[in-house]
Design brief:
This protein has about 675 residues and is of the alpha/beta class. The protein folds into 3 domains: about 60-75 and about 85-270, Rossmann fold (3-Layer(aba) Sandwich); about 285-445, TPP-binding domain (Rossmann fold, 3-Layer(aba) Sandwich); about 465-635, 3-Layer(aba) Sandwich (Rossmann fold), CATH 3.40.50.970. The protein has 25 helices and 22 strands. The protein has a 6-stranded parallel β-sheet, with helices on both faces. It is globular. Bound molecules: flavin-adenine dinucleotide, thiamine diphosphate (TPP) and magnesium ion. The site of magnesium ion has 8 residues, from helix 21.
């Protein structure tokens, strides 16, 4: 057996180390015992149900939920176990034939349902690239390996399927690190394949040798070093299984050059994943359901905290039914936006650092919080000591390592959200909560909130206006908006009303500048018929703008809105509030973005007046190709409200201007 590096180990270290929970400790002990005496039951930390075939028939195994595209635009990827094997080439599903490791790699990817990969070649991965000529898979040549990982990530978030990125060893592999960490923090299923130097050279500081499994140990759900062709098939099958099941996440497969070049007998059936210890069947105990129901029925001021797990679980319908039946209003995390229609009367908007003021107040006043597939990120809770002090907490979560990690909960329901809600639903009583809902309405009305239509522009162009106008223009369809990180990202969350699942793709946990442009390419490749908009800052755009060439090469109709404020705006805002306006290293000297686009053959426009916003957006939509719009917006504008780091959730910095509006901005 080749040496294996287990991401699971690091998860135990990082995730469980934070948990003073005795069951976590027991799990850790079990893990070490098994590690010493056999194969590691890795992934105890970032667990969740391993779906698929390998545990079927095992005593106590309950088939996990089918996580599908969950509102995505494609049909679910199917493994060869599920699909017609006639498409899989000469070997058939049960047949054996002698193949190179490189050939097996592409064959297995095809059998896993992969249609597109994003990659960049180099010496150690050349055998794989050579074998690509026999594959039906479409390879998208990127301009930087970070872009490949974000594209795979965008592909996964748009479609609900596994995205694949490929790179060579050494610098190719290390360039992937940011994209892998981005996917890890947001539970996005990607598989990254890297070439590695020949197995005999490992450890010799060979040309372009990097211990990429070591480097990515803490930022992958799992990773593998493959040193023999005979391990390729099993590893690829396991990697997909791990990436897409339970709590999704990135998996890296590092394959030595000789493993790609040498041959072995390929046997798909024999390569079935075998992962004892990876727990697919976590579900709450009946007593926990009963406790949860009691809390729900006794609550007078409940709030649902709706997170990304709704989209991952595909639980949109169940969440809606639950909220409507129980009459419970819903606050959204940034990554949950779109999981519940923005226009639904029970949808109150985003919570947290830049969430709606009334939403944060409601959370602080609530007597019950129901966390649905969200992980109480610090951007969401503010100071934990003062967080929702009067509320009991129910946490429905697939990863037990998230329970009690940040916020101590009264009732944990560990399992797939959709499955858990289906169990709960028949027992949920309809309760009149009009008093609580009326109170929230008042809170909303009395708040000094944004009414973007009334915000005077006095000849200036505000980012909020641009984004709100963009929403008005595109709301007729099901546009996918991919944002970068910064002020524009928060304004997008506030002023673009997401009605549909997977219509917002953004880097939340790692907050990776440079994410948007490549992630949008991935989304467009996954959903070729969708209207795809990039909303990106002038700073973040310059981090991955080389991928404009990829857009042109692939002939992708992607619309790019640069919110050009001449600053690293979000950092400038922190300097404004907390560093006495010392704008150290935040003003940007920018190129002429429109001319830059022109150099790539991309149509472009520059807009600095509000009256030009709608015509430019319309032109982009009508144009038969990509278009970049450089929106030159107000330079020193601020995102409100803001919960300062370490402040209580209700202690928000509010807009100082006298503009007092209503929440109605239609
Ligand atoms: C500049 C900036 C500002 C930000 N400000 C805000 C803000 O004001 N408000 C805000 O909300 N966010 C904000 N964020 C984002 C924030 O950092 C987090 O990324 C976000 O809050 C995480 O949302 P989440 O917990 O829903 O998603 P994730 O972090 O993706 O967590 C999803 C959870 O669901 C669980 N899960 C997955 N699958 C299932 C399943 N099938 N069943 C049950 N559970 C499942 C996972 O295990 C995980 O615990 C900001 C980010 C940036 C970069
Ligand atoms: C790769 C990376 N480096 C640094 C940061 C820290 N950071 C967060 S927001 C921000 C400014 C973003 O500027 P810009 O892209 O122009 O967007 P704006 O905030 O102006 O809308 C910076 C530097 C980050 N999130 N990611
Ligand atoms: Mg900027």
């Amino acid at each position: 057996m080749p040496p294996l590096r287990r991401g699971g180990k690091s998860e135990l270290r990082f995730r469980k180390g934070m948990l003073p929970n005795p069951t976590r400790r027991q799990e850790e002990l079990v893990w070490w015992v098994l590690f010493l005496f056999g194969r590691t039951p890795e992934l105890l930390g970032r667990t969740g149900a391993l779906s698929g075939t390998m545990l079927e028939g095992m005593p106590g195994y309950a088939a996990p939920a089918t996580y599908g595209p969950a509102g995505g635009c494609m049909t679910q990827q199917k493994t060869a176990d599920q699909k017609d094997t006639s498409m899989t080439g000469t070997s058939g599903s049960g047949g054996k034939k002698t193949m190179t490791g490189a050939g097996i790699l592409w064959e297995c990817l095809e059998r896993e349902g992969v249609k597109h990969v994003f990659g960049y070649p180099g010496g150690a991965i050349l055998p794989a690239y050579d074998a690509l000529k026999h594959s039906k898979i479409h390879h998208v040549l990127v301009r930087h390996e970070q872009g490949a990982t974000h594209m795979a990530d965008g592909y996964a978030r748009a479609s609900g399927e596994v995205g694949v990125a490929v790179a060579t060893s050494g610098p190719g592999a290390t360039n992937m690190v940011t994209g892998i960490a981005t996917a890890m923090l947001d539970s996005s299923p990607i598989v990254c394949i890297t070439g590695q130097v020949g197995s005999k050279l490992i450890g010799s500081d060979a040309f372009q040798e990097t211990d990429i499994t070591g480097v990515t140990l803490p930022i992958t759900k799992h990773n593998y070093l493959v040193t023999h062709a005979s391990e390729v098939a099993r590893t690829v099958r396991e990697a997909f299984y791990v990436a897409r099941s339970g709590r999704p996440g990135p998996v890296l497969i590092d394959i030595t050059k000789d493993a790609q070049q040498s041959t072995c007998e390929f046997d798909w059936e024999a390569a079935k994943p075998q992962l004892p210890g990876y727990r697919p069947d976590l579900s709450p105990a009946p007593a926990e359901y009963a406790q949860a129901l009691e809390l729900i029925h006794n609550s007078k001021r409940p709030v649902i905290l709706a997170g990304h797990g709704i989209l991952i679980s595909g639980a949109m319908r169940e969440v809606r039914e639950f909220a409507e039946r129980a009459g419970i209003p819903m606050a959204m995390t940034l990554l949950g936006l779109g999981a519940f229609p923005a226009s639904h009367p029970l949808n109150l908007g985003m919570m947290g650092m830049h969430g709606e003021a009334w939403v944060n107040h409601m959370i602080q006043e609530a007597d019950l919080l129901l966390a649905f597939g969200m992980r109480f990120d610090d951007r969401v809770t503010g100071n934990l000591k003062t967080y929702a002090p009067n509320a009991k907490k129910i946490h429905i979560e697939i990863d037990p390592a998230e329970i009690n990690k940040n916020v101590k909960v009264d009732v944990p329901l560990v399992g797939d959200l959709r499955e858990v809600l289906l169990e709960l639903m028949p027992h949920v009583e309809s309760i009149d909560r009009s008093e609580w809902l009326d109170h929230i309405d008042k809170l909303k009305g009395d708040s000094a909130v944004r009414d973007i239509q009334n915000l005077p522009d006095s000849g200036h162009l505000y980012a909020a206006h641009v984004i709100n106008d963009l929403w008005r223009q595109t709301r007729d369809g099901k546009a996918i908006v991919v944002t970068d990180v910064g002020q524009h990202q928060m304004w997008e969350a506030q002023y673009y009303k997401h009605e549909h699942p997977r219509s917002l793709i953004t880097s939340g946990g790692l907050g990776t500048m440079g994410f948007a442009l490549p992630a949008a390419i991935g989304a467009k490749v996954a959903c070729p018929d969708a209207e795809v908009w990039v909303i990106v800052g002038d700073g973040g755009f310059q981090m991955t703008m080389c991928e404009l060439a990829t857009i042109v090469q692939e002939n992708l109709k992607i619309h790019i809105a640069i919110i050009n404020n001449g600053f690293l705006g979000m950092v400038r805002q922190w300097q404004e509030f907390f560093y006495e306006r010392n704008y150290a290293a935040t003003p940007l000297l920018n190129p002429d973005f429109a001319r830059l686009a022109g150099a790539y053959g991309i149509r472009s426009a520059t807009v600095s007046d509000r009256s030009q916003v709608v015509p430019a957006v319309q032109e982009a939509r009508q144009h038969d190709g990509p278009m970049l719009i450089n929106f030159k917006v107000e330079q020193e504008d601020t995102v409100y409200p803001m919960v300062a780091a370490g402040a209580a959730l209700h202690d928000m910095i509010r807009r100082p201007s006298p503009i007092v509006e209503t929440a109605e901005d239609e």
